[in-house]
Amino acid sequence: MLSDVEALVLLEAFLFAAGDPIEKTKLADLMDLSTQRLDLLLDQLKRRYQIDVHSALRLSEINDKVALSTKAELGESLSLLFDPRNRQDLSQASYEVLAVIAYSEPVTRSEIEMVRGVNSDSIVSRLIERGLVEQRGTLDVPGRPGLLYVSELFLADFGLKSTQDLEAVDLLMYDEVSEYADEETERKLKKLSEENSDRKLEETEDHDVKETLVIAIDGPSGAGKSTLARELASRLSILFLDTGAMYRALALKALRQGLNPADEAEIQQMLAATDLDVELAPDGQRTFVDGIEFTQDIRTPAVSQAASDISALSVCRHFCVDLQRALADRQSLVLDGRDIGTYVLPQATVKFFVTASLEIRARRRYEEMLQKGENGNYEDVLLDMQQRDYNDSNRALAPTKQAEDAILIDTSGRSVDDLVEEMLDLVKKRANVNLNVPDRD
Fold first, then answer.
1. Which of 3, 30, 256, 420 has the highest Cβ tally under 10 A?
2. Phi, psi (5° rounding) for residue 429?
3. How many CA atoms lie within 13 A of 429 on its CB side?
4. What local confidence, expressed as pLDDT, does residue 253 receive?
5. pLDDT at 86
């Protein structure tokens, strides 16, 4: 049996010699290892590359495959090695076509044309030529149109394991869509834009009557978003929307019906017959599914695992985002995340972008792990958080970023009480609503 050192050397050799992504199961067979031990070795190798500042390599995971690749920050320099024609930036239209394929795969050329309102055959052909898109099989209808998917090269270039890692994006939010749309689509988009403008004006005029307040809090992991959101909601006596509970409740329903939480077709059918709702209670949020309260039953390990699976489904993401928007239309609430102010609730009354230094955020997360009795060390947490920050902020579609009208809040070295008092003052100044906030004793 190979020692860990010998196995790591052999693993690195296989990955280097393979060149292209190689399936984990094939690696395990070649090295005569269990999949569990292979995963541990891959994790060690990945961390070694992350820690070694003198190494140009990183370990990339794509679906169920792994490969050695160069670190992202070297991309511009390495591009000098290749044909200048292959170094040209993609056009906005190409990005739009890529987005349609990535979010809808498998998809046909005619379906892409329906979304964009213009023939995209030439763009698809160029994307196939560049290796970012590939055709796999045909649709079983007259004419047998080809089925298009994004390629493993696309996933590697965008730092994704699979298209399931893509964040939900409303393609109609891209201003450029109307530039290429046909006349009818452009007319509809213009009408929709005018209706949105009229609605925003009406909401602004009616704030003092409706007295609703929607607060969006975004920011990187470990910045203190949830802590501040809960405390702010408590001080304002409004709902703190626990989005995790929403996914957990849906996962529990799936388990009780004997469904696979990772099967998009099964979950889509379930959601079509699901009524999910939440309400504010003295001890927090109460979550209801089809009129039955699930609040006390959604914190088990089995539900946690199922929630992780179901939340990765785009159909579930859209279902929950639609509900979050509906809730925000009818009641005051505080919601935290990474794209609340830019995507989920772009019309929020007040937006905050909460941040802190990387070291402080990593220390907070590490201390949380210790309190829960979890194993780990600060250096690993720091590296993981640094990589997550990079991935989130450099994501091609819907990156984590501060909304233009969001207020920046730095939580480094400050107490929760101090921060909440500042945020309350800012809410009073920004929001055209009547606030009766009790003073802190």
1. 420
2. -75, -40
3. 8
4. 96
5. 46
Domains of the chain: 4-76 (1.10.10.10), 89-179 (1.10.10.10), 211-430 (3.40.50.300)
Pairing of strands 214-218, 350-355: parallel
- SS3 for 397? coil
**Average pLDDT per block of 10 residues along the chain, 441 residues long:** 83 86 89 88 85 82 81 71 52 82 85 76 83 84 80 78 65 38 43 47 42 87 88 91 89 95 93 89 84 90 84 86 88 87 89 93 87 84 82 62 91 92 92 62 54
Closest CA to 350 of 422, 417, 278, 277: 422
Q: Which H/E stretch holds residue 26?
A: helix 24-31
C-alpha triplet 384, 388, 82: angle, nearest 5°: 110
**Own/partner long-range contacts of 324-329 (Cβ < 8 Å, ≥24 apart):** 324/241, 324/243, 324/246, 327/239, 327/241, 327/278, 328/214
Q: What pLDDT score does 182 carry?
A: 40
Q: Which residues of 223-256 are buried (b: 16+ CB within 10 A; e: fewer)?
A: bbbebbbbbbbebbebbbbbbebbbbbbbbbbbe
Half-sphere exposure of 320 (CA within 13 A, CB side): 25
Residue 53 neighbours by CB distance under 10 Å: 6
Contact 123, 180 (CB under 8 A): no
First to last CA, the chain: 65
**pLDDT at 146 (0 to 100):** 83
Residue listed under structure tokens 């030529």 = 129
- pLDDT at residue number 220: 85
β 350-355/407-410 pair status: parallel
Bridge partners of 69, per DSSP, are: 58
Residue 353: its pLDDT value, please? 95
